[in-house]
């Protein structure tokens, strides 16, 4: 799906069904992290107004998602709790830093492509979640989020191409990082978390 090289292990959907509460709590944290990541990238690149606009629009949407997941938690009497360590995202950033890069591409391209990969994997997982959720309202919510994540994937990729200035080079870089993402996702344990 999208740029992903391997599908999610089928055991993940079973884990998610077994402990949907854990997935919902983790998902809320993911939305918050997506918003703060978009804001921190925008704050670090103030000279690129188009980039700042796109990233702050994205952050606004991620905050909206966060608040809506919070409502789902409240309806179920679940607490947000402290944010877990997002090993997947940390490993992905580490992989980007250690995968030799065409030096003509700015580091920001990697940050945007890591964002694209996270969105792509979330999108794939939400599709799997839709199939295990029985409540119609919650299913509809994840259908909407599935479409949003696909769109966010495209936003990050378009921004990376804009910043990199060479679509072929940026796409080759995405391909190399997607290989690393596939290794990471296969290496991490199967947990009831969005990326675990
Ligand atoms: Fe989101
Ligand atoms: Fe997103």
Question: Can you tag this structure with a few keywords?
Answer:
single chain; binds fe (ii) ion
- Biggest sheet statistics: none
Assembly type of the shown chains?
single chain
Quantity of strands, as a count = 0
Helical content, roughly? over 70%
Shape verdict: globular
For the record, give the distance between the C-alpha atoms at the N and C termini, rounded to a whole number. Answer: 18 Å
Uncertain spans: none
Small molecules bound: fe (ii) ion
Number of helices: 7
Q: What is the string of SSEs from the N terminus onward?
A: HHHHHHH
Radius of gyration: 16 Å
Q: Average pLDDT, to the nearest integer?
A: 96
Structural class: mainly alpha
The amount of beta strand, in percent, is under 5%
């Amino acid at each position: 799906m999208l740029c992903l090289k391997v599908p999610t292990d089928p055991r993940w959907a079973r884990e998610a069904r077994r402990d949907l509460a854990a997935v919902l709590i983790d998902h809320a944290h993911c939305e918050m992290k997506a918003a703060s990541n978009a804001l921190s990238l925008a704050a670090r690149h103030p000279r690129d107004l188009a980039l700042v606009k796109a990233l702050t629009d994205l952050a606004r949407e991620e905050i909206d998602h966060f608040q809506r997941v919070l409502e789902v938690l409240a309806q179920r009497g679940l607490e947000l709790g402290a944010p877990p360590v997002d090993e997947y995202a940390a490993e992905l950033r580490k992989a980007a830093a250690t995968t030799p890069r065409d030096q003509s591409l700015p580091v920001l391209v990697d940050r945007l492509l890591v964002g694209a990969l996270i969105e792509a994997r979330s999108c794939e997982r939400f599709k799997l979640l839709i199939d295990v959720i029985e409540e119609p309202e919650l299913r509809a919510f994840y259908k909407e989020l599935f479409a949003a994540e696909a769109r966010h994937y495209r936003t990050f990729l378009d921004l990376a191409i804009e910043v990199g200035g060479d679509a072929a080079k940026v796409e080759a870089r995405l391909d190399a990082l997607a290989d690393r993402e596939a290794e990471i996702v296969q290496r991490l344990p199967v947990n009831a978390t969005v990326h675990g």
